[in-house]
Amino acid sequence: MRHTLPSWIERPLAAMRPPGPRARNAAAHSPPDGPLLWIWDSTGAGSGAALVARRVIARLPDLQIALTPTSDPPDDAGLPPDALCLPAPEDRPASVKLVLDAWRPEMILLLGNVLPAALITEAARRDIPIALADAQFDTGVAALSGDKITALLGRLSRIYLRDGDSRRALERRIPAERIEVSEGALVEPAEPLTCSEVERASMADAIGARPVWLATSVPGEELRAVLNAHSYAMRHAHRLLLLLAPDRDQDGPALAQQLSDEGWSVTRRSLEGEPQATTEIFVADDAQEYGLWYRLAPLSYMGGTLSGLGHAPRAPLEAAALGSAVLHGPHLGRHRAQYLRLEVAHACRGIRTEDDFPDAMADLIAPDRAAHLAHNAWLVSSGGAGAVETVAGGIAALLEARLTKGGR
Questions:
Q1: What is the spatial distance between Cα 192 and Cα 133, in angstroms, rounded to a whole number?
Q2: CA 200 to CA 140: how far, in whole Å?
Q3: How confident is the model at residue 220 (pLDDT cuts 50, 70, 90)?
Q4: H or E segment at 404?
Q5: DSSP assignment string, 99-159
Q6: Residues of the chain above pLDDT 70, percent
Q7: Is the C-alpha dihedral spanning 107, 163, 56, 315 positive or negative?
Q8: Measured between alpha carbons, how far is 348 from 370 in angstroms, rounded to an integer?
Q9: What's this model's pTM, rounded to 2 decimal places?
Q10: Burial zone of 15 (CB within 10 Å; 0-12 exposed, 13-18 middle, 19+ buried)
Q11: Which pairing describes strands 130-135 and 107-111: parallel, antiparallel, or unpaired?
Q12: 348-350 and 130-135: which strand pairing?
């Protein structure tokens, strides 16, 4: 029987490789004195690690934190004072041994779906407890069927999953008592934007039973794509109303005039106030009223994400917190972490090009499609606080038990 090179020599070669530059850099930075929690973050967000760290330290003030993200950390990670924040070391035996020798953590917390095999194996050999949090697995993921994955999961002391489907994907592989569903991502819940209930009721009455969607903060470079998508979607829902918010409020009058010149039936918030029965496009030229627009529209396209040229792109969790499904392009900008959370939770729909826009719109104006996305998005935006408390409380309890046992 022939063997490919990776199948029989890959592991011995990895074991012989010396520590990499990231591991040497990490080992050169000694954390402050005190018990250490090492957080290995593969989520690409950073904020979840900071939220958990701050809450654990509230219970264990002497605890020190070392965060090693696998991607570039955000400029303002929000970590506690004196916390180390360094790139994750290479996941190979020599690298993780070097860092573990230097740091001697009391516990390791892995965030995300990535299982660093060398780290888990070596930490388990040293009897260092490891927990996994902010993880989400699909029951159909083929990789979960592998014996290696099962063995790695079996070495974890505690696993905090985002949803029940993830629990069902794992429950036959590891003891059920090690698994807990934290109900959502590790994220600070967004504070919902407010609006006047009188205005909302009046606008809702003016719109009636018409289907409606919102295009937020749309730059001029994306206007044609939005209009083409609206035209196409109107073939499936002929009374469809578009709430069109320009990238800058002062562009509202010129935008309304341009649309009227092109033959659209247009009304404008700052002029007529409310849409009429024949209105096809309502120019929502008041950025202070996004709380109203999100409440009226079951679907929101996040302007600026198709071209990357928006002046003031809105945050997707704004829409999610108010029950509006999120549609976006490939340019995620400064809100990238929020989009990634929504994508992992199947709580938004992405398009790659302008050509994808019409079909996506036609699909998502179906009430059941938009409602499914909106429900998942709401769980992401509202479940964060509970998830953080669940994970932080569990990690603090494990650390307290270990420190008490060790007499520290």
A1: 26
A2: 42
A3: very high
A4: helix 367-405
A5: HHHHH--SEEEEESS---HHHHHHHHHTT--EEEEEE---TT-GGGGSHHHHHHHHT-SEE
A6: 89
A7: positive
A8: 9
A9: 0.60
A10: exposed
A11: parallel
A12: unpaired
Other CB atoms within a 10 A radius of the CB of residue 323 amount to: 18
Q: In a 3-state reduction of DSSP, which class is residue 389?
A: helix
Spatial separation of the C-alpha atoms in residues 204 and 294, rounded to whole Å: 12
Residues 108 and 38: beta-carbon distance below 8 Å: yes
Query: Is the separation of the CB atoms in 54 and 80 below 8 Å?
Result: yes
Residue whose structure tokens are 């250490």: 36
Q: What is the mean pLDDT of residues 33-50?
A: 87
Q: Residue 19 is which amino acid? A: P
Q: How many CA atoms lie within 13 A of 223 on its CB side?
A: 16
Comparing CA positions, the residue from 133, 85, 90 lying closest to residue 108 is 133
Q: Is 367 within 8 Å of 298 (Cβ atoms)? A: yes
Cβ(402)–Cβ(129) under 8 Å? yes
What are the distances in angstroms from CA 313 to CA 234, 247, 322, 329, 382?
A: 25, 8, 17, 12, 21
Residue that has been written with the tokens 């230097």 in this structure: 102
| 249 CB-near residues (< 8 Å, 6+ apart) | 270, 285, 286, 287
- From 75, 79, 59, 81, select the one nearest 67 (Cα to Cα): 79
Assigned token pair, 62: 């002497």
Please list, in sequence order, all residues whose beta carbon lies within 8 angstroms of the beta carbon of residue 241, skipping any fewer than 6 positions away: 207, 210, 211, 212, 213, 275, 279, 280, 281, 282
Q: How far, in Å, CA of 99 to CA of 294, rounded?
A: 48
Mean pLDDT lowest among 7-16, 129-138, 223-232: 7-16
Report which secondary-structure segment, H or E, holds 267: strand 266-268
- Joined together, the tokens standing for residue 279 give 């209105």
H and E: helices and strands count for the chain? 15, 14
pLDDT > 70? residue 200: yes
Alpha helices, DSSP H, located in 219-366: 223-234, 252-261, 290-296, 316-321, 336-344, 357-364
Q: What is the pLDDT of residue 3?
A: 34
Compute the distance between CA of residue 216 and CA of residue 293 in angstroms, rounded to an integer. Answer: 9
Query: Which two structure tokens, joined as six digits, stand for 384?
Result: 């964060």
